[in-house]
Amino acid sequence: MVTAKKLAELVEGESVMEAESIAEADRDCPDCDGDVLTVGYMPSVTEFVTGWKCQDCDWSETDRD
Ligand SMILES: [Zn+2]
C-alpha cells in the first residue's frame, strides 16, 4: 500500500512537505474507469492541495486553478 506522502509525490511530481491520509475518492478514473485515491497535501507551507490519483494508470489531477 502506498503511503499518503508517496501518493502526494506521485500527484505533485516532486517531494511534498506534508500529506494527510489517503482516502478512496468517490469518482472513477476518466481514462480507464479505475479506482481513484485522494490525498490532501502541502507542497509548501503556504499551499494546501487536494490531489487525485488513479490506482490503475498514470492519470492524476489536483484542485489547483
Ligand atoms: Zn486510470
List the total number of helices: 1
Number of strands: 5
Structural class: mainly beta
In total, the number of domains comes to 1
What integer value in Å does the Rg equal?
Answer: 11 Å
Order of helices and strands: HEEEEE
Low-confidence stretches are none
Average residue-wise pLDDT: 96
Q: What would you call the shape?
A: globular
Proportion of β residues?
35-45%
> Which bin fits the share of residues in helices?
10-25%
How would you sum up the major sheet? 5 strands, antiparallel
How many angstroms separate the termini? 29 Å
Structure in words:
- This protein has one domain (4-56).
- Helices cover 14% and strands 45% of the residues.
- A hairpin with a 5-residue loop joins strand 4 (47-54) and strand 5 (60-62).
- The termini are far apart.
- Strands 1, 2, 3, 4 and 5 form a five-stranded antiparallel beta sheet that branches.
- It is mostly beta strands.
- The longest helix has 9 residues, at 4-12.
- The protein contains one helix and five strands.
- The structure holds zinc ion (ZN).
